[in-house]
Amino acid sequence: MTLEEFKKISQAEIEQATSEITSVSDEQTLNNFKGRFLGKKSHLTDFYASMRDVVKEEKKDFGIALNDLRAKLQALFDEKENAFRQAKLNARLEKEKVDITLPGYQNTLGSKHPFYAVVDDVTDFFLGLGYTIADGPEVESDRNNFELMNIPKDHPARDMQDSFSINENTILRSHTSSVQARVLAAAKGQGPIKVICPGKVYRRDNDATHSHQFGQIEGLVISEDATFANLLETLTLLLRHLFGEKREVRFRPSFFPFTEPSVEADISCFECNGKGCSLCKHTGWIEILGSGMVNPNVLRLNGFDDKKYQGFAFGIGIDRVAMLKYGIDDIKRFYTNDVQFIDQFRKE
Ligand SMILES: [Zn+2]
């Protein structure tokens, strides 16, 4: 084949390809086009093979013309392939279209429940004083809840805590003092002990400040030298930590079967500063908690030598502290899961 002949054939090949590419409408027909004009069985491949027979002086120009033909055919293919790729991408973009003018999703952060805010606050305070945390079950034996706390069956003090019975010997614990019995049993008569026990307790009670379910934090210290003065100091520090350094703290004699002597702690009213208002029932003082020196009977009942060991115990009402601290009017708000209520305690 001469160079002149090849140029004519080459021109015809390009015209043919240009005509056929217009009818290529999908990837299948595009592949057919590629095979026909650029593949192993194409004219192009034959032309390359015929290079062998071209006369020496035309070989160089023949090669240039051949490469030119291949480049033009390849360009036809590339252009179509790009068009398909672009169309595919456009279709995908259309399908996955995001309307950036839509309002975004709002991630609302939760807030700490006021009940647990008090638990954490009191717990942190006592951990700082070297106490550890003890735990016990809410379904408890009558023995741990009452008898080992110096409240035998038929003792009138049982009327102070109207409990829920499961059977004759099993109840829902009426105070976290039941954990005292467990801690003392685990210690097997060996002090010292320094624990707090936060948890839920249950009593048959129902009004704005009393609920069938509420929270207590029990504290128990047993050692050879724990004194009444230690108790008063500990509670004074706690109450000022909870209600402010300016609060006056006073202790009144009281009675609990598991402590002797027993005291109740009051703080000066933070609403009226002691002048008298509806919060403090015009007394200037607010009752906060009960406490006392561990009754020697409790020590003996739980396997401790009351000649060697002594100690003190206290019980804090979590709900009561939270109600006072945050001005909450009804104890039931703690467990009715009203988001608007809990939302008020969000720390921004
Ligand atoms: Zn007051």
Automatic annotation (TrEMBL):
InterPro entries found in the cross-reference section: aa-tRNA-synth_II, aa-tRNA-synth_II/BPL/LPL, Phe-tRNA-synth_IIc_asu, Phe-tRNA_ligase_II_N, Phe_tRNA_ligase_alpha1_bac, Phenylalanyl-tRNA_Synthase, tRNA-bd_arm
Transmembrane segments: none
GO cellular component, one term: cytoplasm
GO biological process: phenylalanyl-tRNA aminoacylation
Reaction(s) catalysed (UniProt annotation): tRNA(Phe) + L-phenylalanine + ATP = L-phenylalanyl-tRNA(Phe) + AMP + diphosphate + H(+)
GO molecular-function terms, A-Z: ATP binding; magnesium ion binding; phenylalanine-tRNA ligase activity; tRNA binding
Cofactor, how bound (note): Binds 2 magnesium ions per tetramer.
The protein's required cofactors: Mg(2+)
UniProt EC number: 6.1.1.20
NCBIfam families: pheS
Name of the protein described by the UniProt record: Phenylalanine--tRNA ligase alpha subunit
Organism of this sequence: Treponema rectale
Annotated gene: pheS
